Amino acid sequence: MLIDFSMRNFKSFKQEISLSAEAGERLRKHQDTNTVLVNNKHILKNLLIFGPNGSGKSNLLDGLKCMQTMILSNPSKVTDLLPYNGFVLDSSSSDTSFNVIFSIGKDIYEYGFSYTSKEITSEKLSKVLKTRKRVYFKREQNNFESGDQSLIEIAKRTKRNSLVLYTAMQNNIKIPTEIFTWFSEDLVFVGDYRLNSTVSELMGLAKDESVKEQLLRFLHFADFNIIDLEVNEQPVMGNTLNYSAGSPMMNQLFAVHKVHNDKGDLIGRRRLSIDSESRGTQKILMIALSFINAEINGHGKTLLFDEFDDSLHLELSQAMVKIFNSKANQSQFILTTHELQLLDSDVRVDQIYLVEKDFKGESELTSIFDFKDTRNTTRSGISYMKRYVEGRFGATPIIDSDEMLDALTNNFKN
Fold it and tell me: In what residue span(s) does the ATPase AAA-type core domain sit (predicted)?
């Protein structure tokens, strides 16, 4: 699971920010349900990130996604440019930094790197012990330090725009391979439905009758009018079905609905591709399949959702947050959302983060736990949504509907 992610100088985030999933000190509320114990650390199963439109919520997850992409894909040539996307509303320029602390089984690691468009400027991998960190390797520009001689030789063969972690994984070095595998398999970004190899693999889960029954029961109790699910393998080319020979085969999911006549009599069934379903149906299926996939392939995965509540009604969003924080769930769900009423879900104060942008265009990340008057609050009935709207925590949009209307109609009046 993810314990902490920090970054600096990426998109709208100029200063270093930290998104921590480590439970707040001396906070015991919902500890047996909303947290999981990892190496004597209580790690939060669910983080909710709120903020107005344009505040930078998506940029926060984009940073972690960019880090994952750089780890999993190695530049083929030394002249290839890296995906540098630093803060642009400033005359100064500097490198971008990403850093994560995460657990793999019973071990906790810290890994991070800094880079410009042309090179990796620093890189460091450590194992986190009870009272200290054991540095596995450290790289600063052309200097490389490690107690492992084989890693020193590997570093010499690593291009300036490549990560030592990637080169070490290619050489089957144990710990770098474990780190690479965590980023590849346990850090999962769940997006909208678009048929690709990852989504095809998720859809294929429904071939299993027990999984299909799980999904149908879930959809029934979520009040979706779907009576059956079918999975067909079909040739796919690009984004359209193409039945030419040699096309790759992908799983296509179909939802079966009841068909009624004008009198309301049941006259048959109709099968619709998921492409034809509403965005809400697509999204809830992606969430459910991702949840089941984490169950099947081992708990402890970290799943991230941008604009989680988009196309979902409030009751369904609230129900999913409740599921994410249930005792049965042993994975981790991090989501951005506009739905302010989720602030009053049955979550802990350290699970709520706020993003806002200042007058210079810089995004800032804050935990509600950092506000002193929230840390020792134990009585129920306190509305964080009300306090947020009142501006007690900042991060509220400043909207003037009259002036907005005037701006839209001014030209017409003139």
Answer: 49-344
Q: Report the relative pairing of strands 352-357 and 363-367 from DSSP bridges.
A: antiparallel
H helices of 172-273, where?
174-181, 197-204, 209-221
Predicted model pTM: 0.84
Show the CA angle centred on residue 246, arms to residues 273 and 193, nearest 5°. 30
CA distance 410 to 327: 55
Q: Which residue, 180, 138, 141, is CA-closest to 160?
A: 141
Residues of the chain with CATH 3.40.50: 2-188+319-389
Q: Are strands 133-140 and 143-145 parallel, antiparallel or unpaired?
A: antiparallel
Q: What is the mean pLDDT of the chain?
A: 86
Q: Which two tokens stand for residue 298?
A: 């081992």
Going from the C-alpha of 198 to that of each of 13, 185, 351, the distances in angstroms are 29, 11, 29
Residues 17-45 pLDDT 10s = 999 999 988 888 889 999 998 888 899 99
- Complete DSSP assignment for 193-210: ---SHHHHHHHHGGGSHH
Cα-based distances in Å from 292 to 144, 301, 329: 42, 11, 10
Is CATH 3.30.410 the right assignment for the domain spanning 2-188+319-389? Answer: no
DSSP string, 40-59: TEEEESEEEEE--TTSSHHH
Partners of 41 in the β-ladder = 38
Count the neighbouring beta carbons within 10 Å of the beta carbon of residue 318: 18
Q: Which two tokens stand for residue 196?
A: 């690709």
Residue position matching structure tokens 């790759």 = 248
Report which residue type is found at 200. Answer: S
